[in-house]
Amino acid sequence: MKRKISSVRKTFLFDFSVFLLYYKETIVLLKGTLMKAFPAPGDNQTGFRKEFYCTKEFTIMSTMNLTLMTDLYELTMMQGYFKTHSDEKVIFDVFYRKNPCDGGYAIAAGLDQVIDYIKRLHFSEEDIAYLRSLKLFDEDFLAYLKDFRFHGDIYAIPEGTVVFPREPLVKVIAPIMEAQLIETALLTIINHQSLIATKAARVVYAAKGDAIMEFGLRRAQGPDAGIYGARAAVIGGCVGTSNVLTGQLFSVPVMGTHAHSWIMSFPDEYTAFKTYAKLYPDSCTLLVDTYDTLRSGVPNAIRVFNEMREAGIELKNYGIRLDSGDLAYMSKKARKMLDDAGHPDAVIAASSDLDEHLIYSLKNQGAAITSWGVGTNLITSRDCPAFGGVYKLAAIQNEKGEFIPKIKLSENTEKITNPGNKTVYRIYDKATGKIRADLICLADETFDEQKDMIIFDPLETWKKTKIKGGSYTLRELLVPIFQEGACVYTSPAVMDIRDYCTKEKDTIWDETKRFYNPHQVYVDLSDKLFQIKSQLLEQMSMDALKS
User: Fold this and answer.
1) Which CATH class is domain 211-379?
2) CATH 3.20.140.10 in the chain, residue ranges
3) Which of these, 504, 502, 522, 479, lies nearest to 169 by C-alpha position?
4) CA 334 from centre of chain
5) How many Å apart are CA 121 and CA 116, to the nearest integer?
6) Using CA atoms, how far apart are residues 105 and 477, in angstroms rounded to an integer?
7) Are 197 and 96 in contact (CB under 8 A)?
8) Which of 84-93, 124-133, 305-314, 504-513 has the lowest mean pLDDT?
9) What's the angle, vertex CA 160, arms to CA 358 and CA 481, rounded to 5?
10) Are 27 and 18 in contact (CB under 8 A)?
11) How far is 68 from 267, CA to CA, in rounded Å?
């Protein structure tokens, strides 16, 4: 379908099934499959690209120019830098100060979308025209934006890694205008996905090995939150999602059963179950609480399972779902009924406003549930709706090419930033493989695993620990992502990140995973970094006395 329009704006409109691509006075209707049509910056853009093809890296964000997804003050500061000290190279750190949900850890996520954003960062003619209309920006600055690209370095902790407060999740080394512009986008991507991945990890821990399915799309804060939240939930440990588009985009398992409306659309419950079983014999989980769970739902499900067996249909991936009532009581009664009928392998799944606390309680009550569908409370992280990551200047390069440490003061000691060009080392206990502590240090520092290491709390410095040489191993967490504007990192597939995250969670003690008063993993500063921080604080204190 083609027709003429007056607009020349290239825009994607998204409604889950249809994309309208506005391109050079032509609308092209694309159905069914997500396809790459928008050229990346640097591609030949002189004519309409007729070869549409799917790519492994394709995401919703790839179809959108996110350059103006920023706060206005990033752009006004950029113009200020352009007029004054545009060539200055700086270092910014992304970190957070407090674990979500009062927990003992977090899960890093969102890096792949950050990579996609940086690759496609450019100002279109429409972007520049809009900025001009605000009457805030001079023409020489707008002319500079026409050829804008990111030319800096980015280091990051890989997705799926267990992380802790105050340590850099992302480090940006770039000209100050470039580093300033990307602040908001980096934070919104990293904050959201890290939050949901962390929430998912908590839910998975509560289930004690049972399968967790992400079912939250209809309650998410819009399509992007639903799509990328589901991605993050899988990274955190969910076995799959009900979100079909997330399944398509990221090659993760999609799963689901049926709604109450399916049963209500038939003359009776038994007919609804029988019809569904005929359609999906290899994935037959029946929702049993539409009318009366124990008197009607479960008996009718058993009847259908018995008929399938008698018909020679192999029963696999089958069972019932509970969506209301006392889940502990109902599941135990249903379990006995299924077992007595000769279906001990039938799964009992549960949904109904679940979160990690309710699942943990139900498990302790002996609920006979082995599969959990978690929706609203997971996809929105209802009890902790924000991650709290920040983006702070850490160093400025001088004329000699040296990075001069910078520090932000605060009345709150915990909000004082760590200065300088830094990296993070994880200290593992050699015998157990568990995390002993994380060490923030200067990027050029080296350590000998055969030597004793003394670490100390940077706030309560009298708290010191000696780690015997030979009893620990070190791993540097920050890895290069971009070098001089070129991407040097390949993101793993989401299911591979999930597997990696599972191994990561095994490196923290159960005391750190518990929901109430968890043990806090130490995040310490190297002696060299601590001395630099102390000297800067002392200098600023003395300067204040002189004023």
Assistant:
1) alpha beta
2) 72-196+386-546
3) 479
4) 36
5) 9
6) 15
7) no
8) 84-93
9) 155
10) no
11) 54
DSSP, res 27: E
Structure tokens at 94: 């992304």
Cβ-in-10-Å burial (0-12, 13-18, 19+) of 22 comes to middle
The closest of 151, 154, 136 to 78, measured between CA atoms, is 136
- DSSP readout, 407-425? ----SSGGGPPPPSSEEEE
d(CA 511, CA 360): 15
In angstroms, the Cα distances linking 114 to 62, 111, 186, 314 are: 11, 5, 6, 46
Task: Give the residue range(s) of CATH 3.20.20.70 domains in the chain.
Answer: 211-379
Helix, strand, coil percent values for the chain (each to nearest 5): 35, 20, 45
Give the chain's count of helices (H) and strands (E). Answer: 17, 24
Q: Which two tokens stand for residue 266?
A: 């038939």
| Average pLDDT score over the chain | 89
CA gap 428, 432 in Å, rounded: 8
- Using CA atoms, how far residue 36 sits from 12, 83, 121, 149, in Å, is 11, 38, 17, 21
CATH topology of domain 72-196+386-546: nicotinate phosphoribosyltransferase (3.20.140)
| pTM recorded for the entire structure | 0.88
Reading the block at residue 494, the tokens are 């989401």
For residue 90, give the H/E element and its range.
Answer: strand 89-95
Task: List the single range of 25-34, 366-375, 531-540 with lowest mean pLDDT.
Answer: 25-34
Q: What whole-number distance in Å separates Cα of residue 290 and Cα of residue 286?
A: 10
CA 518 vs CA 103, 262, 385, 455, 471: distances in Å: 6, 44, 20, 21, 25
Beta strands, E only, 262-312:
284-287
Can you tell me the distance from the alpha carbon of 458 to that of 240, in angstroms, rounded to the nearest whole number? 40
Cα separation of 115 and 487, whole Å? Answer: 8
CB-CB neighbours of 484 under 10 Å: 11
